[in-house]
Design goal:
The complex is a heterodimer. Chain A is about 45% helix and about 15% strand. By secondary structure, chain A is an alpha/beta fold. Chain A has four domains: about 130 residues, Response regulator (Rossmann fold, 3-Layer(aba) Sandwich); about 160 residues, 3-Layer(aba) Sandwich (Rossmann fold), CATH 3.40.50; about 80 residues, Helicase, Ruva Protein, domain 3; about 40 residues, Arc Repressor Mutant, subunit A (Orthogonal Bundle). The N and C termini of chain B lie far apart (about 45 Å). Classes of the chains: A alpha/beta, B alpha/beta.
């Protein structure tokens, strides 16, 4: 969103000079010949700065200042005063004007003040981003020893120059949040904001306000205007976790931002324009949600330009050992203990466990084991008893097969063993060639 | 609203081990726990009780046999309910308990239709043992649940 300035000045030559100078500096500038025209412009668009003459026909600069501060408190106002009307300038300052400048003035003086406001607003935006959620992490570590995770990282590497939306899918605890950060910090937007929000943790009203901001007075408790995450993430990345939890109303609003880069604050009447890269994540079957009418298909296709499915930990067993070691090294320092690693028996338990809670669960197990362990290695006794005493299996729909599927799979294996010789394969399987053909051709 | 783990077991069954695991997993995942107390297939349960009563009667423990046969299979055990809630509270896990007069597979299917925040379903050892839930029912559940189904079985170690 470009920095926008409104200039209200009834002297045409002065107005045009100011507009031209500011445009040359790269600002988005709009002019108004009097206070009423300026007010009309304010009603239809948002401005970061208002530069206004104090004496204008119709509405004066002071009146304009009052009105804009009521409507958009965050818009800074610079008053242009005539020689001899310093009293009015002081009055304006008391009413909330940022600064004043007296005629005749050097345009460079005005530019200096405007650049100062611009810089301050940028810093404020960055501070909000840093304080609000995760802020900017310069180092993101990922452990990927398994082929499947290496493939995913390779895909992400290939996307570095792209700005496309990405949908991350996978069970809870697989690392969707971490992958989102990696996508951002390897992209061209890596020096810009990375913000994230979990769509399931807030009510629809609060989520709407958090995402899109609100105008002062938009609802009970909205005592000031607030910028939303979409606005703060401008030129950066916004990660929406549990996207499937968005209400239909918010899905519609989000679609407009994703498609057109435009949105309205809650209670707002003027469109805001942003350039945000969207990353989204869900652990649900979005296609099923679409067929149930709970998720918009058009929003899905907009967010799903690229989809990355992160496999559960039980399907990338090669990552368990290095992850365990990583979490041991991560959590050991705060324990003050000297633990060098895992005993073979302890690691065997971890390697044979199905981790329904995935990487998050593994980290928790290692963290607890460090606390409980009294020796120099993590032993089975420090691993939760329930995992040691029970045989835990996590069932996937993809992994459960019908008898027919199993038969077909076996028949294909046998056929492969005999290099495609159906006669031999049928003989081994104890069936006719026709029966074998029927089994193999079934979808 | 936090995500939930759905732990399914039977009323009047020993669910200690399965519940401990469910609590550990809820802690690890920072999720809440919902416990569904289903009904065992009435016929099977009643048959088990009759066989137990016969065994006691054959051992001349007729009083015990009479007690078993007089048990109402439909009444939930209040004492166990409190134990269950106490365990969860002591572990710092927010838990809700539902009792349903349905078999496990139907109870789970109906529950998941209403509640979207269930992250995964944990079946206690008693649910998956002894044919209480058939493989066909389990397969259907896995295909329709749209979330991981976790089964538990007791480990047996050679002496």
């Amino acid at each position: 969103m470009a920095f926008s300035i409104l200039v209200a000045e009834d002297e045409e030559i002065t107005l045009n000079n100011i507009i031209e100078t500011l445009k040359e500096e790269g600002f988005e500038v709009t002019g108004a010949k009097d206070g009423n025209e300026a007010m009309q412009k304010i009603d239809s668009a948002y401005f970061d700065i208002l530069v206004t003459d104090i004496k204008m026909p119709g509405m004066s600069g002071i009146e304009l200042l009052d009105k804009i501060k009521e409507k958009n408190p965050e818009t800074e106002v610079i008053i242009i005063t005539g020689f001899g009307s310093i009293g009015s300038a002081v009055k304006a300052m008391k009413k909330g004007a940022y600064d004043y400048i007296t005629k005749p003035f050097d345009l460079d003086e005005l530019l200096l003040r405007i650049n100062k406001i611009h810089e301050q607003k940028q810093i404020k935006k960055e501070n909000i981003a840093l304080k609000t959620f995760l802020g900017i992490h310069k180092e993101v570590t990922i452990i990927a020893r398994s082929e499947r995770m290496k493939k995913i990282l390779s895909v992400i590497e290939g996307m570095q120059a792209s700005d496309c939306s990405v949908l991350l899918t996978g069970e809870s605890g697989v690392g969707k949040n971490l992958l989102a950060k990696i996508i951002h910090f390897t992209s061209t937007r890596k020096d810009r904001h990375f913000l994230s929000i979990n769509c399931a943790t807030l009510t629809e009203e609060l989520l709407s306000s958090e995402l899109f901001g609100h105008e002062k007075g938009a609802f009970t408790g909205a005592v000031t205007t607030k910028q939303g995450l979409v606005e703060i993430a401008d030129t950066g990345t916004l990660f929406l976790d549990e996207i499937s939890e968005l209400s239909p109303n918010l899905q519609a609003k989000l679609l407009k931002v994703v498609e057109e880069g435009e949105f309205y604050r809650v209670g707002g009447t003027r469109p805001m324009r942003v350039d945000v890269r969207f990353l989204a994540a869900t652990n649900q079957d979005v296609k099923r949600l679409i067929s149930d009418g709970r998720f918009r298909e058009d929003l899905y296709y907009r967010l799903n330009v690229m989809q990355i499915n992160i496999p559960p930990l039980r399907e990338r067993v090669d990552d368990i050992r290095p992850l365990s070691t990583f979490f041991l090294q991560k959590h050991l320092p705060k324990s003050g203990k000297k633990i060098s690693g895992f005993t073979k028996e302890a690691m065997d338990i971890l390697m044979n466990y199905s981790f329904p809670g995935n990487v998050r669960e593994l980290e928790n197990i290692v963290e607890r084991a460090i606390i409980l362990e009294k020796t120099s290695q993590i032993t089975p006794e420090s691993i939760p008893q329930s995992i040691r005493l029970l045989q835990i299996e996590t069932l996937d729909p993809d992994k459960l097969k019908t008898a027919d599927e199993l038969i077909k799979e076996y028949a294909e294996k046998v056929l492969k063993m005999f290099n495609g010789n159906r006669t031999k394969a049928a003989e081994i399987l104890g069936m006719s060639r026709t029966s074998l053909w029927k089994i193999l051709k079934e979808e | 609203m936090r995500k939930q783990l759905l732990f399914v077991t039977y009323q009047n069954e020993d669910f200690d081990e399965g519940l401990s695991y469910a609590i550990d997993l809820a802690k690890a995942m920072s999720e809440d726990l919902t416990i569904l107390l289903a009904h065992k297939n009435k016929f099977l349960k009643r048959f088990e009780e009759i066989m137990s009563a016969i065994s006691f009667a054959e051992a001349d423990e007729h009083e015990t046999a009479r007690e078993i046969l007089s048990l109402d299979p439909d009444s939930p055990s209040g004492k166990k309910f409190c134990t269950l809630m106490d365990k969860c509270q002591n572990a710092g896990i927010a838990a809700k308990v539902y009792t349903v007069a349905k078999d496990a597979a139907t109870a789970i299917k109906d529950f998941l239709k209403q509640k979207n925040r269930v992250d995964m379903v944990l079946l206690s050892p008693s649910v998956t043992e002894n044919g209480n839930i058939s493989s066909g029912e389990l397969q259907r559940l896995v295909r329709t649940a749209s979330r991981p189904i976790v089964t538990m079985a007791k480990q047996f170690y050679a002496a």
